[in-house]
Amino acid sequence: MNDDQGEATPGDHPDADVEVEMLHGVPVLHSGDQVTLPPSREEYVELLERLREQGFWVCVDLCAVDYLTHPGRTLPPGMEAGRFEVVVGLLSPERRERIRVRVQVPGEDPRLDSIVRVHPGADVHEREAWDLFGIDFEGHPDLSRILLPDEWVGHPLRKDSPVGSIPVQFKAPQELRR
Amino acid sequence: MSTTERDSVTDLAALDAARVRLNSDEAVLRMSQTEAEEAEGYRAPTQEGLGERMIMNMGPQHPSTHGVLRLVLELDGETITRSKPVIGYLHTGMERTGEELTYLQGPTNVTRMDYASPLFTELAFSLATESLLGIEVPERAQWIRMLMCEVNRLSSHMLFMATNGMDLGAVSMMLYGWREREELLRFLEAVTGLRMNHNYIRPGGVAADLPDGWRDHLLRAIDPLPERLEEFDTLMTGQPIWQNRLQGVGAITTEECYSLGVTGPILRSTGAAWDLRRDMPYLRYEEVDFDVLVGSFGDSFDRYAIRLGEMRESIRIIRQILDRMPSGDYRIQDKKVTPPPRARIDESMEALIHHFKIFTEGFKVPAGEAYVPVESPRGELGCYIVSDGSAHPYRMHIRGPSFVNLQSLPHLMHGGFLADAVAVISSVDPIMGEVDR
Fold first, then answer.
1. Which residue of A has its CA nearest to B401?
2. Which of B367, B394, B407 has its CB closest to that of A121?
3. In CATH, A26-155 is 3.30.460.80
4. Selection from B334, B315, B284, B278 nearest residue B142 by Cα
5. Residue A58 and residue B436: Cβ atoms within 8 Å?
6. Tell me, what's the pLDDT at A176?
7. Looking at the partner chain, which of A73, A96, A149 has a beta carbon nearest the beta carbon of B280?
8. B83 touches chain A (CB under 8 A)
9. Which residues of A touch B380 (CB under 8 A)?
């Protein structure tokens, strides 16, 4: 929506008379006290690169949220809500500002471009999101399980993964377990 | 070491160079846990055809790995070329557990993450919940929170002093650090009832008011500290062995820290004066006077010296809090968030209902999202909560400073000696409970 608008150009929204504030071609949401940007999957890496040039050097946090049972959330009109959302917290130490980037990731195709080339610090966060939510970060140099053992099956922080019903997976050979 | 005005030496070109260096894979070993196990002891000739390249596993059961950190090291003789921290041995799914608990039960869960500084996780969780609720806790609660956090920062840095000394062979330092920490923990116990895992800071305020005689108790604990810190200086800072063991070991630059998201004493040791207490103040930190200490070399010695100095600053803050502690409520008087006082339950039906509702159902939090960071002894500790309007967080995520800071290990150890690995791990001061969550 309004993606073709230039940088920081206020664009009129067809559905409402309110002016939609834009930053790098992405509409700005105000969520709580933080500026939130919801780019599309294609715009995502490019947006982080632009923001980095503006002083948002530090990727403080990256985490995934599974919105399977809670569909309602604020998105710019026209943007389709995906099952997953990847939330990136950026910090500008010079401007002492924070900005939040939320990307929609559909449940049937949980893929997203990796931002390790932009922010090397996102490495462990992306591995954690892969481990717990099964989001495939394309271009990540080593997308392996980080908190769970390598042979674990499933992604336990997904909402359809039941709590307490997973048998503990032991690694020891059979004869030792008896 | 000096206190500075904000000096912005970082520019984009330097950041870009740091990013290229960090992404070049010269320090990080990309190898899965299973591959590392299979490759244990594997030797391959180096490119020059001189020595041998060898994969070695260090930990998770190793006395200097601060719990259960495992490192897969690629060695060229005695030099570490590449490495990878392997974590997850303490993973118990606390973020998922947090989704099953109410907001009132939440602090009991998150406090078990960083067990050396539990009050900070409770604080981040409570601040995030309060931000969603749109409430502000009373003045006295804010100051009590600040007081308790600074005492906790002292005890956490004491733990660092003890373990850092122990890792490097200064065994008497271990005993001294432990001794002072115990006095501080006694104060925390007198206030909260527990030495660790306090569940003291809760959404809406704190669990209980400061007990009678808290002032004398606290003064008894912190009055001898400046002298003891002098002793630490004599024992370690000026000692040639200590200096040789730490200076120049595990150096990192400001740009690398920013690119890796590394915060806390590691970032400050590189000369960047970044402390959330001063730069993005929360609670009442803008009303107290303290200095943000920075180093100049970004090595293990600076990280040690900064933590030593931060203890002096914490004592300074605590003394100001002692002078300025206001009277008033220690938790918000909102019957939907805080349980009524015990005496009211006998008199008022309504109080009984509120009490029952809060402890059976919990209080409902408006839908939305909030991320609140605080400056823990290890760096930025953030809590991200997504609420769907019910009494349980829909998603509760903790951004742990140790988890992120561990990423710097391969870069800190790259090109160093295996014997220095212990010094480097120790100076990063990871708490595995929070890394693995």
1. A60
2. B407
3. yes
4. B284
5. no
6. 54
7. A96
8. no
9. 60
Strands A136-138 and A111-113: parallel
Reduce the DSSP state of residue A29 to 3 states and report it: strand
pLDDT of amino acid B397 = 93
Buried b (16+ CB within 10 A) or exposed e, B176-191: bbbebbebbbebbebb
Opening angle at CA A88, ends A83 and A91, nearest 5: 165
List, run by run, the mean pLDDT of 10-residue segments along chain B (437 residues).
46 82 80 70 55 76 76 86 87 89 91 90 93 90 93 93 87 89 92 90 90 92 91 87 89 90 92 89 90 90 92 93 90 83 84 86 88 92 91 91 91 88 89 88
| Cα distance between residue B8 and residue B2, in whole Å | 16
Q: Do B406 and A124 touch (CB under 8 A)?
A: yes
Question: B115 touching A, CB under 8 A?
Answer: no
Would you say A100 and A35 are in contact if contact means Cβ atoms under 8 Å apart?
yes
Cβ–Cβ gap B88/A89 under 8 Å: no
In contact, B289 and B314? CB cutoff 8 Å: no
Phi/psi at A92 (5° precision): -110, 105
* Nearest chain B CA: its distance from A130 CA (Å): 14
Identify all chain B residues contacting A57, using CB atoms and an 8 Å cutoff: 10, 15, 258-259
- Provide the residue ranges of all domains of chain A, joining segments of one domain with +: 26-155
Q: For A3-51, how does the pLDDT look when each residue is reduced to its tens digit (9 = 90+)?
A: 443 344 444 344 444 456 777 777 777 766 688 888 888 888 989 988 8
Chain B nearest-CA distance from A166, in A, is: 12
Cβ contacts below 8 Å, chain A against chain B, sum to 122
Chain A residues touching residue B379 (CB < 8 angstroms): none
Each residue's pLDDT tens digit, A46-97: 899 888 888 888 999 999 999 888 877 777 777 788 889 999 999 998 888 8
CB contact under 8 A, B404 and A121: yes
Question: Which ipTM value was assigned to this complex?
Answer: 0.85
Could you tell me the CA-to-CA distances from B164 to B78, B154, B247, B380, B427 in Å, in that order? 22, 15, 14, 21, 7
How does the average pLDDT of chain A come out, rounded? Answer: 79
Q: What topology does CATH give the domain B96-411+425-435?
A: Cytochrome-c3 Hydrogenase; chain B (1.10.645)
At residue B50, the pLDDT reads: 52
User: Could you give phi then psi for residue B147, rounded to 5 degrees?
Assistant: -60, -50
Contact list, A93 vs chain B (CB under 8 Å): 10, 258, 272, 274, 279
Structure tokens at B41: 């002891």
The rounded distance, in Å, linking the Cα atoms of B234 and B220 is 23
Residues of A in contact with B409 (CB under 8 A): none
Contacts of A142 in chain B (CB under 8 A): 28, 30-32
